[in-house]
Design brief:
165 residues; alpha/beta; Rossmann fold; 5 helices; 15% strand; rod-shaped
């Protein structure tokens, strides 16, 4: 609730302050911001609001800005708490095939998948994969390993060609 009050002859600023306090107590979860214009004529009302913990601002612009900041804060908190939807609605991997491949690897006692099995897993997830083939010579090297600092690393290069003294 945003209350902007400018003193008039028929209503005292104190009466308006007490009405705001009653409304705030009736709806305790609703934020209340106030701006009482009139400097000296509203000082007593501002002190009543301050004692009750209701924020008041010297100008309506400050009150409106604070109201907007509160709204944005609430909005961003809700966004942070949202559960993201599926990125690709049409994505449906063949989980049964993947489970079958992993079961075969386990039954064969493998600690990692062979190239053909890994390609089948990629295809089950809808990823196009190029078939592997063995190198015909040691002139070119391609491989992968787990580095303790960098993690999984793909290695490629001229292999043993330049390793000779």
């Amino acid at each position: 609730m945003l209350v902007i009050f400018s003193p008039v002859l028929h209503h005292s600023a104190e009466d308006v302050a007490w009405a705001i306090i009653r409304a705030q107590k009736e709806y305790p979860l609703k934020p209340v911001l106030t701006s009482f214009m009139g400097e000296g004529r509203v000082k007593s009302a501002e002190s009543i609001l301050a004692k009750e913990g209701i924020p008041y601002f010297l100008t309506p612009i400050e009150a409106v800005k604070s109201f907007l900041y509160m709204y944005l804060y609430d909005h961003y908190l809700k966004l942070l708490l949202e559960t993201p939807g599926t990125i690709l609605q049409s994505f449906s991997p063949d989980k049964d095939s993947v489970e079958r491949i992993l079961l075969q690897a386990r039954q064969k006692g493998l600690s990692s998948l062979k190239a053909e099995m890994a390609l089948e897993v990629l295809e089950a997830y809808g990823l196009r994969a190029t078939k592997c083939r063995e190198a015909e010579s040691l002139a070119f090297f391609l491989g992968a390993e787990r580095d303790p600092v960098f993690g999984e690393v793909i290695l490629f290069g001229l292999g043993g060609l330049f390793l000779k003294p």
